[in-house]
Amino acid sequence: MLSKIPIDLGRIKQEDLDKEILRAAIIGELDAINLYEEFANMTDNEDLKAVLQDIAEEEKTHVGEFQTMLLRIDKEQAVELEKGKKEVEELTGKK
C-alpha cells in the first residue's frame, strides 16, 4: 500500500476530515479484498476458498458503501468519477 494509514489527522483541515476518513476506509477495504482473493487462490481447501471469496465479496460491498458516502460529500469527486467513466466509454466504445 502506498498511502499512509492511519493518516496524520492533525494535518487535515476539519472540513476535509470526513473525506479523508472515507478514502482511508476505501483503501483498507481494497487491501482486504486483495488479501482475501489472494489467499483464496492459494488454498486447495474448497471450504476455506469459499469462505475467503465470500468475505472478499462483502468487502466489495463495503467499498460501495464508503464510495457512496464519499460522493455525497465530495461533489468534485462525483464530477471527476463521471468524467472518468465517460473517457473509458469513449476509448473502448463500450458502456
From TrEMBL:
The keyword Signal does not apply. GO terms for cellular component: encapsulin nanocompartment. InterPro entries: Encapsulin_nc, Ferritin-like_SF, Rr_diiron-bd_dom. CDD domains: Ferritin_like (cd00657). One of its GO terms (molecular function) is metal ion binding. Signal peptide: none annotated. It is found in: Encapsulin nanocompartment. Keywords: Encapsulin nanocompartment. Residues 20-87 form the Rubrerythrin diiron-binding domain. It comes from the Archaea. Gene3D superfamilies: 6.10.140.1960. PANTHER family: PEPTIDASE U56 FAMILY (PTHR37165), TYPE 1 ENCAPSULIN SHELL PROTEIN (PTHR37165:SF1). This is Demethoxyubiquinone hydroxylase family protein. It comes from Methanobacterium spitsbergense.
